[in-house]
Specification:
With 392 residues, this protein is mostly beta strands. It is built from six helices and 21 strands. Strands 1, 4, 5, 6 and 9 form a five-stranded mixed β-sheet that branches. The N terminus is likely disordered.
Length: 392
């Protein structure tokens, strides 16, 4: 019987975990014969990694990779392609990697398989606002994956506010996706709101509307996006107006109250963070393609008011209403797009950036690259926002 003996290596990584470091040992890998695309892998876990799986928002997960040293190609196993005892509980494990299911084609016998653990921020961060505007604190919890029934329910539109992790990365910002001079690198992961902040969530934090309250003419209800809210209402007109020289917000602002009650640095996204999260890896005009599509956005063609958040399809990272519904305030002063590493935009200006288009505007404003602006004190029927939180 002819079988290939696959080269092996073992890597363990558990950065930022404080407890005694667990280890992965006794790794073996053997492809099945006759070849059917499956590789049997075994390993031993010493130390309870599973028990450390969620610590201060950090999640440790299994990582299996294969590197074809002849073709110089590497692959990381997807969750769907792995079966067997894939947990990180202490003891011996036997798993199967179905390469065919993942579309991986190893052309050489000289393959290096790595079995390791990888520690990252949890995929989702959730703020529980149910204690309301008189609360002294809001619990913050973390999820490794989307809940079984998803986020598009009344709970996550009202009393709980969910944010999804966007990993550090590089993209080309703006309309011209061939312009290498427009390349932006974000060196830190950040959380981005799954939805725009809703009217119920605003009231649970603030207890009152700062300007006009939402009306039935433009969409009123717990799950509708908050509007008639200015940049100054969100961050404050004193300390909150000093970005980018200072990230401090006014204590009486929405973010001032939220930061005080969570002890975490929630804020608006920078314009670069917003576009990176909106594109979700795409380079087309819209995050769903090159043409308008009413299945993804509320804009003037299909709407005459706001709509409850999360009623259109999300982008590839599970973020809803990044196009349409309401404009979303960003941190930056309006000016020329800022490129490079972790850009913060202009150092001064008279208007702040808004992104994403709205129900009041046509499809051209919904483009991932479209940038608008307004005075930070302005509040209109189609101005809203979503939260962000940059990680260390």
């Amino acid at each position: 019987m002819d079988t290939k003996i696959l080269m092996l290596s073992v890597i363990f990584s558990a950065a930022r975990l404080i407890a005694a470091t667990p280890t992965i040992t006794a790794v073996t890998a053997q492809q099945r014969y006759p070849w059917n695309g499956k590789v049997d892998i075994s390993y031993k876990v010493t130390g309870d990694i599973a028990g450390m799986a969620l610590t201060n928002g950090l999640i440790t997960t299994l990582k299996v990779t294969a590197t074809d040293t002849v073709e110089n190609t590497s692959y990381t196993a997807t969750t769907e392609s792995l079966s067997g005892a894939t947990s990180l509980a202490e003891g011996s494990h036997a798993i199967v990697w179905d390469l065919d299911r993942q579309g991986v084609n190893l052309k050489s016998a000289n393959v290096v398989f790595n079995v390791s653990c990888e520690t990252n921020a949890a995929l989702y961060c959730v703020i529980d606002l149910s204690a309301g505007a008189e609360a002294t604190s809001y619990p913050v919890t973390y999820l490794a994956e989307e809940p079984a029934d998803g986020f598009t329910n009344d709970t996550y539109r009202t009393t709980k506010l969910a944010l999804r992790r966007c990993d550090a990365g590089t993209f080309i910002m703006g309309e011209d996706q061939s312009a290498e001079t427009h390349r932006v690198t974000l060196t830190k992961p950040f959380y981005m709101g799954v939805f725009e902040v809703t009217q119920k969530q605003w009231m649970l934090v603030m207890g009152a509307w700062p300007n006009s309250s939402p009306s039935s003419s433009y969409g009123s209800g717990d799950g509708y996006p908050a509007y008639y809210v200015s940049y100054n209402n969100i961050r404050g007109s004193s300390n909150g107006a000093k970005w980018p020289s200072s990230s401090v917000v006014d204590a009486t602002s929405f973010l001032g109250k939220l930061q005080a009650r969570t002890k975490l640095n929630f804020d608006l996204p920078t314009e670069a963070q917003w576009e990176y999260a909106c594109r979700a890896g795409t380079t087309t005009t819209y995050y769903w393609g090159s043409s308008p599509n009413v299945n993804y956005a509320w804009y003037s063609f299909n709407s005459d008011s706001t709509h409850p958040v999360g009623t259109k399809k999300p982008n590839a990272w599970g973020l809803y209403d990044m196009s349409g519904n309401v404009w979303e305030w960003c941190l930056d002063w309006d000016g020329a797009l800022a490129y490079g590493t972790d850009p913060k935009g202009s150092s001064w200006g008279s208007c702040r950036v808004k992104r994403g288009g709205s129900w009041f505007r046509d499809e051209s404003y919904c483009a991932s690259s479209y940038s608008s602006h307004d005075y930070p004190s302005s509040s209109y029927i189609n101005d809203g926002f979503r939260l962000s939180r940059t990680l260390p």
